[in-house]
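Folded chain entry —
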Amino acid sequence: MIYIVLIIVQILAAGCLIKCSPIVNGIYQPTEPNEGEFPYHANIMHKLLKFSICGGSLIHPYWVLTAGHCFLESKSQTLFKPSEVNVGVGSIYTNCKGGQILDTERLIIHPQFTQANKNDIGLIKLKISAQLGPTVKLIPLHTNNNENLVGKTVYLTGFGAINDMNVIPKRLRVAILHVDNYTGCFDNPPPNNSEICAASSLSEGKACRGDSGGPLVFLKKKKYYQVGLTSHLALLPICRLKYNNSVHTRVSAYISWISSVTGVNFFRPKKQRNSS
């Protein structure tokens, strides 16, 4: 009984049980994708409670990209052990119905991650390889950190509560965001072009804390590339504010770190990486 209470406290500390609203549309109809439409999305779940902790993306059969703050309470204390975390892939359902539920081997957080959500990026190594197919695919990473993304339409996927009453959706949701100048997130531009500010209306869907780690992607030549992962909200921890834009860690600023940790060269074409 004490163990169960401790687990619940851990998830509350992660901000993912009471005020966990990954994609909120207010009074508007949400967008729910079909099976296989976003086959790279990973649902990071607590192994015992089967509750979604964060989102992530499958970047290699053995590796999932996510946010560092999903697992780190302080520089010396993690929220979860690898044995307490599962990763679900290949399902558009919150309970991962019809998908693969995989055990984790390692949780790796960027060494320069700060409690102010700087360098907010992390990796999960899976114990066994995800089986690729029509509903489970890898997402290629955007590698050009000098490309101007302002004005581009990007897409965010996520599971979690849909309002402040803690109602949990049964299916994955999609938000349509737009890359804004960093002043739209009410802060100074970060060094090394390491973050993305994204804006949207309520009808398009707003990112919120339950979206943490979820992939931010854009279409280029009819192909999705991951440009970011959800880090935090610009203003208040409330989703239903029109000007409460979201901040996303920019993936291209961390390609060298991702490649170094995984041992996989993410500058190479995806077909070459699949067998690494």
Observations:
- Helices lie at 2-13, 255-262, 270-273.
